[in-house]
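User: Here's a protein and a ligand (guanosine-5',3'-tetraphosphate). What would the complex look like?
Assistant: Let me lay out the input and then the predicted complex.
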Amino acid sequence: MSMNLQWYPGHMTKARRAMEESIKLVDLIVEIRDARVPYSSANPDLAGLGRGKKRILVLNKADLADPRETDRWTEHFRNQEIIPLAMDARKRGDCTDILRLLDRLAAEKKEKDLKRGIKNRPARLMIAGIPNVGKSTLINSLAGRASAKTGDRPGVTRGLQWIRLNASLELLDTPGILWPRFEDESVGLKLALMGAIREEVLPAEELALEGMKLLKERYPLALTDKYGLSEEYAPAWLTELASSQGLLQKGGEPDTLRAAGRFLDDLKKGRLGRVTLESPAPGEE
Ligand code: G4P
């Protein structure tokens, strides 16, 4: 597999600088990752940038992830003294949970400030993560209105706006956007499969075959159950899939490109089941 790493954008330095500026202003950082790829959707820079700040780690899109794996990841992060929270950012109840947690942290900060004789002000927080993990969705849900635009342009600086969530919390309305680990090909692959980066890292058919192979390793029956594909990994899977789904070209040939698209879409939307593409490795953040 040879991966085209063109997707690594040149704005990284600028985005990082913007993050550094915003981080100075906040007390709490909510990092969002995709619960289906909690390692690959990490910001490698955030641990360093956020040193000294309280960090909450949201494993978002948990509705699409394998619940047993999400439990393992949650446990893994808790052992590292990061506060993990699995959620669906679109759900009101889940937003209530995170608000409750944020309130608790704000109260702790208030107490500390009072002890040190610092005049009390609301705790300020920012939401950060790689593109497409649900930052704007969470900001919108927390703010209770459609104030944050979806779509990302890293490094774009606007005037900073604070959204008052309650008496003790203020949220930066612009999410911090950083890029994933790009030196590792499997990271690019998994992010493309989850739709976090555009699929052009590989031609669609190659990406789909890699995705099928990965899925087969982790969920051996998923492809057979959903599409009736043969049980062994086969490069002919796309042809099989095209035939079984009736995806044919004009001359009646199996349309493997459309089959690839079908698979990638089904995988992303959870129609192949709730899947998580990686498990925690001991001792790794
Ligand atoms: P971003 O700001 O981090 O870039 O992400 P954004 O909020 O724009 O969310 C990206 C997509 O993910 C949106 O779908 C959004 O609805 C969806 N999403 C956010 N949180 C969750 C979650 O917890 N569960 C699920 N299932 N989906 C979530 P979209 O606009 O339809 O884009 P797409 O699905 O076509 O990528």
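Summary: Residues 203-268 form one domain.
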